[in-house]
Amino acid sequence: MTLRLADIVQALMDRAPAQLLGDADILIERLAPLETAGPQELTFLSHPRFLGQLAQSAAACVVVAPSMREDALHRGACIVVDDPYYYFALLTQLWKQRHSPAPAPSIHPSAVIDSGATIGPGVSVGAFSCIAAGAVIGAGVRIAEHCVIGRDVVIGAATRLSARVTVEDGCRIGERCIFYPGAVIGSDGFGLAPHQGRWVKIEQLGAVQIGNDVEIGANTCIDRGALQDTILEDGVKLDNLVQIGHNVRIGAHSAMAGCVGVAGSATIGKHCTVGGGAVVLGHLRLADGVHVSASTTVTRSLLKPGHYSGIFPIDDNAAWEKNAATLKQLHALRDRLKQAEKALLQLQATQATQVTSEEKP
23, 119, 184, 356: least buried by Cβ within 10 Å? Predict the structure, then answer.
């Protein structure tokens, strides 16, 4: 299926006003990267550092910012918009809607739905999925194969669950959320009390509350709270293999990359980002607008917005071992430095006393 440039711009005009310059009747077959786009393909340029690739691009049309308008016009057709990267995101949504439309709602014969569950209009349930008593499934929800929806779960309208997603009892999910394969919502938090050399389980009596427009990556786990709920506010985005501990709260529109771990009772503010493989220890607080680099371990609360890193720089192995060995000696070196400073101050005081004595008649 092809789309006319004019039709593409018109379809997105309400969400991102743009100016089309060049032949409006060009037919677009697909979206493509700037460096490989061909004569029937649409691409975008979001950063000035790739400007050198623009003149060489064979793309049918390029989406650019106003500052790059003249360079793009010199090459050929272009769409001028304030935020090309945002426009590209909208383009991908449009393309999927036109080329991969959602299947008609259906309930697979092998799905098991308790008679006490409430199923809204237009809901799809895939093969071998189970929905327990008391669950409320909103309009247009899509539940793929082998999903498990526990008792009294609430899922808001137009939310999508991919294959093998599990939502445990009592959890609440907002509207237009996306859950990727293998995500587990509401498993027990890691609560154990030591007693006479053994671990005694602390029952996790809370649940998980998830707001609207949240995305949860593949095989990501969000633990239910011990007494109160674990909470993800609107617009939170979690990548694959993320672990969110019990009673964590994540503020609206925060995002975490793959393999992040957030320990129990931590509070993450709004509009925060956490890079891949980073760890936030339990009971800490990150203020709104905190950005944590990949592989960083957050060991204290970060109460001011900003970018934080705690990464030992990569190096060739021999140099890294020398630096690591030196790092292990820092505490002893600090003590030696303090002793040297103390001795120097004593020496200066002694010399000053001697000079004063010599100056006396």
Answer: 356
